[in-house]
Amino acid sequence: MDQATIQALQKWPQVPNCFGWLHFDRRGEWRIQNDYAQQHHLPGEKVTHPGFKNYIESHLAVDDKGNHFFQNGPQRVYISFAICPWVVRFYPLAEGKWELKTTFGQAIQPTGCFLDEQDQISFEAEFETFTQEENGQFTPTKIKSIGLLHDHDLDIFSAFAKIFQNSCGSLGEFLWQEKMSIEPIYSEDLPQLYQFTKTPKP
User: Fold this and answer.
1) Which of 117, 136, 142, 154 has most Cβ atoms within 10 angstroms of its Cβ?
2) In what order do the strands lie in the sheet with 112-115?
3) For the whole model, what pTM was predicted?
4) How many Å apart are CA 185 and CA 112, to the nearest integer?
């Protein structure tokens, strides 16, 4: 979090929080939801400007109630999520190897792998963000949370996965750096399990 943001908060401490305006979709895209989009339950206009996307992603934080927000100067802009706070993709390395990273560019080491009722794959891992201290300063931190695999990368995932047929326990194995079980999960349970708010309210 840059010093200009800290100074803006100190100069204008009473700027009201913003809700319902910024949405993070299931493919890791930021969307601006104006009044019309909110009233008609539309996804909103996609943010395509690289500089603005980078600004959002370098000013993300989470409060002690699990509400994620974008600190836009002195204003806290709360984020709603289609599924969860991160989207994960496979990125190629040398010699045919791959790494897992968020769409923000954070490399992750998964500690859990899940398949939900919509056939979506998600990974549990530690993700980087900021928390705000009582003195107004932002502290880098890592939190255990969940990241949805981008659906364009399901074919790559299948090359590392072994799915069991007619299983009543583990659904399969993810053959990554260490073999891990693919466990069932319900997407509606993610906010409670990983302590985030899907749609923050005033």
Assistant:
1) 154
2) 98-102, 86-92, 138-149, 121-132, 112-115, 179-184, 172-175, 161-163
3) 0.89
4) 11
Residue 202 lies inside a defined structural domain of this protein: no
Strands 138-149, 86-92: pairing is parallel
β partners of residue 44: none
pLDDT band with cut points at 50, 70 and 90 for residue 9 = low
The total number of structural domains in the chain stands at 1
Mean pLDDT of 53-76: 93
Cα–Cα–Cα angle for 155, 159, 160, rounded to 5 degrees? 120
pLDDT of residue 12: 47
Torsions phi, psi for 152 (to 5 deg): -70, -15
Please name the amino acid found at residue 148.
L
Would 27 be classed as within a structural domain? yes
Phi and psi based region of residue 92 (left: phi greater than 0; alpha: psi -120 to 50; beta: remaining): beta
Domain span including residue 91: 3-194
pLDDT at residue number 164: 81
199, part of any domain: no
The pLDDT score that the predictor gives to residue 180 is 93
CA distance 78 to 25: 14
Rounded Cα–Cα distance for residues 27 and 89 (Å) = 10
The percentage of residues in the chain with a pLDDT greater than 90, rounded to a whole number, is: 72
In whole angstroms, give the CA distance from residue 72 to residue 113.
33
- Relative to beta strand 179-184, strand 161-163 is unpaired
